[in-house]
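Hey, quick one: can you model this chain's 3D structure?
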Amino acid sequence: MAVRIGVLALQGNVREHVAALTAAGAEGVPVRRASELAAVDGIVLPGGESTTMSKLLDTFELLEPLRARLRDGLPAYGSCAGMILLADEILDGRPDQHQLGGLDVVVRRNAFGRQVDSFETDLDFTGLIGGPVHAVFIRAPWVEKTGGDVEVLASVPDVTSAGADAGEAAGRAVAIRQGPVLATSFHPELTGDRRVHALFVDMVRAAG
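Sure thing. Here's the predicted structure for all 208 residues.
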């Protein structure tokens, strides 16, 4: 089944996500207007700066339409800043920052940027075949707490694939799913590995 998946095109790696979705068998399209949002079967919220994206959602009059569609069950995938926007609660966020909701989690904003510098490592990822996922973390969040309906798909290992001690990041959840909503702390659109995007495309097809 052909599906059209939007990529929120206000900031971040929009072209990379569109290319990854296309490679995974979907029609990837940028979304900047409510009319474009209304025409998609799923939405990707890319990395970027979560507070800036929050303000731009207001500026482009997308905040309430997107919240409404998420409440109605629109499948969504958030990477890095996208994970922050989808979380019900964030730590270290700005008091005026808007949340879209959809994930019953507590997320710490910029956790990796403050505590263990941006880095890369391999992750065991539940539900994906073909071995570990190589994950790129850039000033990324991590998940501090999950609700009962949230499935943890990947966590940071105690020792990274480069042999470094992961320190305080060890064991932190960095890929999660709750129903039709998927989120990762890392950026699969930057590595050429399309399996996370293919998983989301399958989720969108299943929801249709």
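One thing worth noting: The chain has a mean pLDDT of 90.
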